[in-house]
Design brief:
By secondary structure, this protein is mainly beta. A hairpin with a 2-residue loop joins strand 2 and strand 3. InterPro entries: Cytosolic_motility_protein.
Length: 311
């Protein structure tokens, strides 16, 4: 069934330091970096936002001052964060990341995500991916970091990633009822070794008090725990961020809502339980002792966290 006519993009107006909005659009491959927008004298400029203990922080390049702008003093207190509330059946599009050099391909089914002459663009920086701002008139891209700004132009942009609105069908591995489901993985041939599995941990963003997700989540030790009196024995792997650093914890179903262990920190933090996506059929999480984890953290552009061992 074809998608309905596409609706307008949704942007949440958020004061810096306010609670993070629901359903933000992540930067490609990033766990705690989101597409953001700010206006300077009526001119749109894209940048990045991130979640710090449940509240909005951000960074924007400012070409005229060749500087990084971050706080209320620099930005005037309010920014916008891109949201995706629904799916392609209700909105008529889904967000796809493509190379800048491919922007003219499939033009009949793709629309550039843009505000005026500004496009969000991602720089695959060796020190960590960054969202920035592309001036479509001059074909110059600007990225803010470490209290400075970096500029690229021309052919330097070709391998950078931009966001488009894809009007055809749904995204890969879409879970809606109208999209076809991938076939189950083939059985393991005997007596040879098992086929390679996709090494991918998938996290979904929810907030404390949101409805409990309907998707299959990764339960601690894959079973109900022998817990202390008054604690929920069904606990799930969870992640949040404080000052750019990822912190692992637990979440549980509290009367149909998301419950979380770090209530003493206050606020309404956006956290991410690890989803076990059965549609892929290509990864199995295994608990090992001691649990070996690896995490890379970068302010405003944090990497994903690996806690479980995929066999």
């Amino acid at each position: 069934m074809p998608n309905p006519p596409p609706k307008e993009d949704t942007w949440a107006f958020q004061p810096i330091g306010s609670p993070f909005p629901e359903a933000p659009v992540k930067a490609l491959g990033e766990q705690n970096q989101y597409v953001a927008l700010w206006y300077k004298n009526g001119k749109p400029i894209h940048g990045r936002s991130w979640n710090n203990q449940g509240v909005v922080e951000c960074s924007f390049p400012y070409p005229l001052g060749k500087a990084e702008l971050t706080g209320v003093k620099d930005l005037g207190g309010q920014i916008q964060i891109l949201q995706y509330k629904g799916d392609h059946n209700s909105l008529g599009y889904w967000y796809e990341w493509i190379k800048y050099s491919d922007r003219f391909e499939k033009a009949e089914e793709r629309q550039l995500l843009r505000c005026g002459d500004s496009l969000p663009i991602m720089w695959k920086r060796p020190g960590g991916n960054l969202m920035g701002y592309l001036d479509n008139k001059t074909e110059k891209a600007y990225f803010s970091h470490d209290k400075t700004m970096t500029t690229f132009e021309g052919s330097q942009l070709n391998d950078m990633m931009i966001v488009v609105r894809n009007l055809k069908g749904g995204p890969p591995f879409c879970e809606c009822a109208s999209c076809p489901k991938p076939p189950p993985p083939p059985p393991t041939p005997a007596p040879g070794p098992p086929p390679p599995r996709v090494m991918l941990n998938e996290w979904m963003d929810v907030r404390v008090g949101d409805p409990w997700p309907t998707r299959s989540l990764v339960k601690a030790l894959d079973k109900s725990l022998d817990t202390a009196a008054g604690q929920n024995p069904d606990q799930y792997v969870a992640l949040w961020y404080i000052a750019g650093e990822p912190v692992m914890g637990r979440a549980w179903n509290e009367g149909g809502k998301v419950g979380w262990e770090r209530r003493e920190e206050g606020g309404n933090p956006l956290r991410s339980p690890l989803a076990s996506d059965g549609s892929r059929g290509s990864i199995r999480e295994t608990w090992i002792y001691p649990v070996a984890g690896q995490c890379e953290s970068r302010k405003g552009g944090n990497r994903g966290l690996t806690l479980l061992s995929a066999e």
